[in-house]
Amino acid sequence: MPAQLLDGKVIAQQIHTETAAGVQELKTQGIEPCILFMRIGDDPASRAYVGMKDKKAAELGIRAQTQVFPEGTTRQELLAAIHQANIDPSIHGILVQAPIPGIPQEIVFSSLAPEKDVDGFHPVNFGKLLLGDPTGFKPCTPAGVQELLTRSQIPLQGRRVVILGRGNIVGKPLAAMLCQKGQGADATVTLVHSRSSDIPALCREADILVAAMGQAEFVKKDMVKPGATVIDVGVNRVEDPSAPRGYRLVGDIAFEEVCQVAGYVTPNPGGVGPMTIALLMANTVRAATLK
Ligand code: GUN
Question: Cis ω on the peptide bond leading into residue 241 (within 30° of 0)?
């Protein structure tokens, strides 16, 4: 039987409905939630991602502003703009879109006020995540994966989760979240990376396999345990002269063949992507609530 799809668009919409209610509640208290996006240079993917987030914020009644900085913006200039946003009481959330050309992103993320870091990458928020302290902000993509699993009633307690990719944006924080004690976690987590040996064998142990290593169609059907849940976080460009832009976007899993073996699979697009945006909006409303 082919795998069932875990529809991120439907589940993201459930979260947006809750978020929109939160926005209305804040507005009755005279608070208008506001998120500031900062984008540096002219990376088309960054432009598209910020555009999608900005549009969704407006739909939910969240005020959104975007500051675009030219490529060549210095560290000092960017940090000065972040400082202004940090001290501006009308701004509740700040997101600096990566990649940030020419400036180490750790320095940028560390300069955000932790209580406005709705992206969840400030060391204070990352540390709280590791400690299991719920007062911090969780990074939106791994939090979106966790919500997608729990709202789809995919059990995690005691199950084997294998995460491909140890990056700071997805793999590392997701591993921390899913091995935590408590609901929507309690899993036994294996974090697989480029130096891991026998990756296919490790993948076949997974009840839940999360592909977040950024390699086009890396996960093949012989790497998937029959009936497993497979989550595709990847967005990769592959050249395709027949496509209108000369490339097409593919995930980290070979979708068609994985569907023949898996129990549940995320479509891509329409799986993890919408969840990331939903969690960002939810974090922004929480930031405004905490104020
Ligand atoms: N670039 C790719 N993913 C992300 C993300 O989650 N947050 C930010 N700020 N930049 C990104």
Answer: no
CATH number of the domain encompassing residue 94: 3.40.50.10860
- What pLDDT, on a 0 to 100 scale, did the predictor assign at position 78? 98
Model confidence pLDDT, tens digit, residues 208-246:
999 999 999 999 999 999 999 999 999 999 999 999 999
Q: Return the active site residues.
A: 53, 97, 119
Pocket flag, ligand 1, residue 97 (CB < 6 Å): yes
State whether the beta carbon of 169 lies less than 6 angstroms from ligand 1: yes
Whether the link from the prior residue into 99 is cis, omega within 30° of 0, is: yes
Nearest CA to ligand 1 atom 2: 98
Q: How far is CA 126 from CA 119, 120, 130, in A?
A: 10, 7, 6
Atom of ligand 1 nearest to the CA of 140: 6
Check if 96 has its Cβ closer than 6 Å to any atom of ligand 1: yes
Structure-token match 């296919």, residue found = 200
**How much is the pTM?**
0.97
In a domain, 288, yes or no: no
For residues 6-16, average pLDDT: 98
pLDDT at 291 over 90: no
| Count of structural domains within the chain | 2
Residues 56 and 155 reside in one and the same domain: no
Q: What is the DSSP letter of 94?
A: E
Structure tokens that stand for 283 in this block: 């974090």
The reply to whether ligand 1 has any atom less than 6 angstroms from the CB of 119 is: yes
Domain containing 239: what range?
140-273
CATH code (residue 260): 3.40.50.720
* 99 Cα nearest atom in ligand 1: 1
